Amino acid sequence: MQNAVVEVDGRRVWGSTATSYPPLLRAGTRVERCHDIELTEALLLGYDGRWGEPRSLAAAHARLAGTPVPPDPPPRAALPPGDGQGTLFEAAPPPADDPEILSKVYADQGHRLSLVGQPGRFKLLVAAESAGALIAVEMGAVGLPWRADIHHKLLVELLGEPSAVGGPPRRLAELTARINDAFGVRSLHPESPAEVLRAFTRAGIQLPNTRAWSLRDVDHPAVPLLLEFKELYRIWTAHGWAWCDAWVRDGRFRPEYVPGGVVSGRWATRGGGALQIPKVVRRAVVADPGWKLVVADAGQLEPRVLAAVSGDTRLAAAAASGDLYAALATDSFGGDRAKAKVALLGAMYGQTGGAAIPALATLRRHYPTAFDYVEAAARTGEGGGLVRSWLGRTCPPSSAPLGFSEDGAGAGARARGRFTRNFVIQATAAEWALTLLAMLRGRLAGTGAELVFFQHDEVMVHCPADRADEVSEAVHWAATRAGSLLFGDTAVRFPLDVSVVDCYADAK
Asked: What confidence tier does 357 reach under pLDDT thresholds 50, 70, 90?
């Protein structure tokens, strides 16, 4: 394979895993470890506060050579399986990476890695990010088991029969008529927020938007109909018949995962909406005959991460239990679990009003080290500074287009503070989950089990039924190993809820 050109320290070195690995995988070559130049360059540029600069191999080499830096190529359009050329007439493979350029850029990145504040942690981040890129390609190739017949049946149950002329299905058409009747009009389109807002205005009701939480506070006969319509319309447009016909082939849903696609390090997908599968649609995710789905979900991950990174011994002691919120309640909140949860989430997400005020006061009094950790991140953000995750992923600068003001004061600064407050926790949680995934991939090698899904703090393995217990043990081991790799000797536990099921919808 022409892109497999450099191997250093037992790692395949290439410009982009997403480009170079698929041809190897199709040819039956499984790569154990790699170094992804593009993903590493993005991390290093971010660390230097140069977020958003070109990160391709060509760009990295141009910076090293002191020549003009070319822009990154635009993202490829997402194509459902079967939309491209057939396997008999494969598209031309990408140009081979130049071995000399790869070696020079790899050496330069290694030097830059040694200069960061915590090089050991940052190297772990780079290794986990590159391992994640391998897993993303493999999961896209294997695909998530998907029963199109079950999917079509549940769509009929929810939406009614599809329209013969391509319009909304029967249930949506009926709801549209009832919503029009409730407003006393004839041609309102419920999927149009502008039309719905005008209808409420004519009824003497002023609303800021048509989001569900705004509608629930309104006493009007159209509200329950609109809420039902919104839920069903979302399923029809995002995971309806057209989606299933386009994205499901040979019993598998094969999305394209994008490691590090979110600024916090969480994954995204290109096409298919794999990370937003509604619970009701999960009924179509069914293991093959003789196989099982092992679904693992990390409970209370971000609060546990806060306990680990802050070094708050009292919070870490609470996080050594199975239910962190219950332990906090017993320790400091008079047994009130709900109050303990409000306090901890308020501290991490910047919820400082209403019921959170007394709860936060209790949290600050009993867990000052953890509270000060997120407060310091918020103050840094409000002042326009950069914060980093535990392993060194750096948040975008305040000039990045993240949806809040850049004025450095007032509402814009507070929004920036809420972002950086959570970034240090969410990005670290993403690192823990990615490390778990990398550990699990290695543990499952040669077992026949397949990683088929990963979403934030949830992972799914498709395996022969007689290996389900072995896979469950491997998942627990990987969670423990990820915690020790990131945080060393800590009292904090990272428990998983693990379900062995035939259908994804039956998981805990």
From this structure: confident
